[in-house]
Amino acid sequence: MNKPLLLSLAAAALLGTNLNAESMYTKFHALELEMDKLKKEISALKADKIASDEDEEKLSKNDDSKEKEDAEDKEEDTTDLRDEIEDLKESIAEINKATAGSHLKFGVDYRFSIDNLSYKMADKSDTGNDALMSNRLWINMDWLATENLSFAGQLAYNKTFGSRSGWNTNVVGMENFDWITNENPYDDIVRVRSAYFLYRNDTFFDSDIPWTFSIGRRPSTNGHLINFRDDDKAASPMGHSINVEFDGLSSKFSFNDFVDGMYIKLCAGRGGTNAGAKFFAVNPTGGIETSGAPYALNDTDLPDIDLVGLIFVPYSDGQYSLSTQYYYANNLIDADIVYPGGVPTMAGMQTVGGMHSFTANIIMNGIGDGINDFLDDTTFFMSGAMSVTNPDADKGMLGSALGESKTGYSVWLGAQMPSLFTDDGRWGVEYNKGSAYWRSITYAEDTLIGSKIAARGDAYEAYFTEYLVEDILSMQVRYTYIDYKYTGSNGFFGNDTGSSTLISGIAPTNPMASTVVDTAQDIRFYLRYKY
Q1: How many domains does the chain have?
Q2: pLDDT band at residue 113, thresholds of 50, 70 and 90?
Q3: Residue 196 domain-assigned?
């Protein structure tokens, strides 16, 4: 009887290979292929064993001595099969041992884009950029250490054509602010966009409640709803009210056994630290050099910015879902603008207060029940959000009086439909409207004219995404138009950059009119390679 010795020898050869002789990906990929072969061989051997057992049972009912002798031979073969199965299992165990039971995965996501940007200012002048070209590269990393524990990370590079980090004339301090450092194209530095481990289990203590815990640099951009037009898998936050990078933790508890899709997710993060520098630092509140114990708290510096949040999904059955989100962020900041000699000058940064945020949305993945194929494959969503400021007693927020709270509102409607030309393409339309005191934390939104979701006014968007080579190479054309009604849409949280002023009330001759955007338009084309 032929035995699968070649597979065993191949497995042994792989185990003896020098890991430094080839890339980790190549090594593990080869091991995966070998394990698949071994598993198929085991399945075939088990099938032979079952057939052998059936033959033995039939023969045992026959008294003919020749058949009994054949049955004994079959029994010997069956014993050999069992031994071979055990040998193959040991080979697989050795492979698992050599790889720590892990599967190392790398993925590449490269995008070339060209944007036509145009603005009409409050003084009626026009400005823009006819062809801003950029490269965006994401290198994805995933490592499954055990069935319950995994790691995920992403390196990012986002650069405009011709820009180098040593050429700083068009790069100001906020371009590499921690919340958006990988989202804005400007230099040639590769940075960590996300890095975290995830623990998952099907039981929480003695209860049958699946749960997860994760900590690290969060995958907190391109969240729910905004992911549709970005052609990405949704991150956990709701993109209507938060879309920034930050460091933090989360823990999710699923109650799908009680209600379809129900879960609660607790989140917390730090968006700014008060820790001092290793040697000396420049105090952002006044630009003065300070020194002290390395990384100690600095009472003269800005306090930590922390955020806590809760995501609650009461129902999601695959077609219809209802989701809610709440968060509170403290010690939010603004630029500190002073006017020496009547000239506005940035003296540093200041803390102005906190903010509550509430969001709820409904998603329909398929309209109706089998009306026609087009509606079955159409997604419709609507979302509402509210922001409530909590200013410090001696500070105003978003243009308020000192210590006065302001409430803002936003609505967002959208639909994504199957392409009219291809089977896999998607077309979409969206509309946003924000009130005078609406404030989201969506600075990382991938719209170069500014976050459309943050707009205090009306925003309109249409796009279509088509796949050129399977799901690897795609293209998109997107049109975004924002009609601002109030100033400060893309500012921070205080009265200096976030103040809400009716734009139609600003006279064209007012000096500030040349710095206020009235309408903005972005026409984008991209080619994207994902593998």
Answers
A1: 2
A2: very high
A3: no
